[in-house]
Amino acid sequence: MLLSPLRLGSVELRNRVVSTAHGAFLDFYRPGEPGDPYIAYQERRARGGCGLIVLQPVHVHRSSQAGGHYVYDADDLRPKLRRMADALHAHGTPVLIQLMHFGGEFRSDARAGLEPLWGFSPALSPTGAEAVHAMTGAEIEELIEAFARTAALAVESGLDGVELHAAHGYLLHQSFSPWANRRKDEWGERHRFVDAVVECVRTAVGDDPVVGIRMSADDFVPSERGGLGPEGLREVAAHLAGGGRLDYLSQSAGSRAAHYARAIGSYRHPPGEWLELAAALKLTVGEALPVIAAGRITTPALAERALEQGACDLVAMTRAQIADPDLVRKLDGAAPGRIRPCVGANQGCVDRMVGGLPITCFHNPDVGREGETAGHAPAARRVLVVGGGPAGMKAAETAAARGHRVTLVERADALGGRLRLVERCGPARELLGSIAWLEDELRRLGVEVRLGHEANHELLAALRPDTVVLATGARPNPDAVDPGDASIPVVSLEAALGTERPGGAALVVDLVGSEEVALTAERLAEAGERVTVATPRPVVGEHIGFTRSVEQLRRLYRLGCALEPSTVLTGVEAGEATTLQVHSGARERRRFDRIVAGSPGLPELGMLEAVEQSEARALVAGDAVAPRTALHAFREGADAGAAV
Ligand SMILES: Cc1cc2nc3c(=O)[nH]c(=O)nc-3n(C[C@H](O)[C@H](O)[C@H](O)COP(=O)(O)O)c2cc1C
Ligand code: SF4
Prior knowledge:
Radius of gyration: 26 Å
Bound molecules: flavin mononucleotide, iron/sulfur cluster
Number of helices: 20
Strand order of the largest sheet: 3-4-5-8-9-10-11-12
């Protein structure tokens, strides 16, 4: 069913695979920005066979405000949308644009005008957001007109239609939610605003273009705090379906930015987590509206099952197609290789978007730079890659795909390098799907992989490579933590995770604010160790992206870990560690059985001299350049492979 066509309003879709709206290049809407990277990004997914693309949301009015989001200028946007529509239509993919207004969410200092946020009622509980200006009737009419005007602009510019963003707690969602709309006038009537927007948008675009709506299937707000819950939201959906003016309903979840962690779940969330809620929505709207189900539908098999069971009519495989834009073409046999899985890292996509950064993917470094992919090499060279972690594997794959003859040697008896640490870290082990996929690709591309092999002079002499990629990683550096009188052992993350039955009390010193330190602390606590995490940074795991840190911190607290931000280790003496809270000045002396050093490693470049003395050209990638995350390593591996 997944690859069968479907009619959406007047538009024919060639399959049921949807790329739902997702912020990727927010600056596309900035007046003066040519917009090429975003067009190339979406064009790549259309070329890969995607059935329907919904563009990232455009703000319909200047009063919708958040840092890094822009108010469009019609004359600037029209030609950009036209180029987008032409690019996607050339591949047979219809394209819609999501229309949105944040309402009382986010901050009023995002724009030079410093206007207040606009909402229905002054206090926007439960988001804890800024105070809101309660719109006058005239201002409400102005916004309805803004939705209609923007929809007309999109359709005039060649798009196939629009999607109204009534999910995630933004203005349209606020309009029918008691937690945000407590008005006593006619705009307090539950469906009044959304009905008016639907009607005006439909009138503005006419009968043919697609007009869809996105709604959360659950707002995750208890009724006593003004939530509608799944039943209340289904009543709204039934009402909208009954109006007969819409062409589809797209399901999501949540009613504030903090709920992204659930709606756009990481590896901590099971695949297809919201399919039951989507099915209940489908049951509610019946044949009146096709439903798009969303939420970690990561494999075609799961998508197929959801369609066959009637849970939905279309499936969002949004991150699945971020990770692998050729998903559909691989499924129907038009492109070679196995589908690169979305492993739920969230590090490259949503967590960068929330941070205001352009999109990429944890293990697909081509994402976000679609226009720049290196082509086939002019001449096949002999390439030796030293190191089988993310950087080395990616370098080998990229070089081999470009036509080079590649040998990869790895000292350990398995591929994956430092990323293998997540093997012991509960659901995070899904990240190793990236390594399994690369292993398959190396096999398919004919890369010779030698495990348990040390690279040395003899190997260089025997292979006589033209290029050597040194992806030799980094070695742990627990010495970054001052051991004082050495009365408490200081161990690396690797050593801590390698302990079979940890017990006693551990002080984890988090010097980097990374996911790997937090996951280690979590694993130790799960295994029974009493864990304290001290970090000089203002929050534990400061550099873990937004969606993951919410759940990481919750997990650590639930496991009983003591989290101590802005805290430094000042000394170790007679089996006791002294910490200093830098703001309060409070010092504490406590006994710990071991100290776990969450410190950056030291680049391992032992082979560099030997390569430089040989005829070969040396390239360095990943932790061997500077130890960071696997996302950095995949990226640098790809760049090294492209540079051969
Ligand atoms: C980078 C990123 C940005 C997103 N931004 C939006 C957005 O602006 N509007 C929206 O309705 N959903 C947004 N989403 C949610 C997606 O549309 C989709 O519902 C979600 O990713 C779950 O589907 P998936 O598991 O197939 O990725 C975003 C998702 C990602 C990954
Ligand atoms: S960064 Fe992670 S979650 Fe996002 S698309 Fe890539 S693999 Fe999926």
